[in-house]
Task: inverse folding
């Protein structure tokens, strides 16, 4: 049941990305183009996600435990370090250059384009590089 709920959450997330237009890299790049044809759509999508998460976390943490799991799995690390900041910088650079972040990129696989393939390949190389650097 836990795996099914994970798939359902992923499906809902992908559907939300598609409905909001966030699988279109031009929309993301339009948001980053503050000096040109600025597109504020991403700001509204992110705002909706923050409000939904804020309310959802308050409701969920009133429970003793998760419905489909044994315990809540929350990050324990709270300090900023070079790995976190470097990873965030690489993520932002990749997002700004391609217009894709991992969720929308995977949700867009059905319409493969060269930029999408290049981004997905770079993401996979990054996974292996991160694993090699942390071992």
Result:
């Amino acid at each position: 049941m836990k795996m099914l709920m994970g798939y359902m959450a992923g499906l809902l997330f992908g559907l939300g990305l598609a409905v909001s237009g966030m699988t279109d890299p031009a929309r993301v790049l339009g948001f980053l183009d503050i000096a040109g044809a600025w597109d504020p759509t991403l700001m509204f999508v992110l705002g909706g996600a923050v409000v939904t998460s804020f309310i959802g976390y308050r409701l969920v943490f009133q429970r003793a435990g998760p419905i489909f799991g044994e315990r809540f799995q929350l990050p324990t690390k709270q300090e900023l370090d070079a790995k976190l900041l470097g990873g965030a910088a690489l993520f932002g650079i990749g997002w700004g250059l391609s217009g894709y972040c991992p969720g929308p990129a995977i949700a867009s696989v059905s319409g493969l384009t060269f930029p999408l393939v290049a981004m997905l390949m770079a993401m996979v190389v990054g996974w292996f590089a991160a694993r090699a650097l942390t071992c």
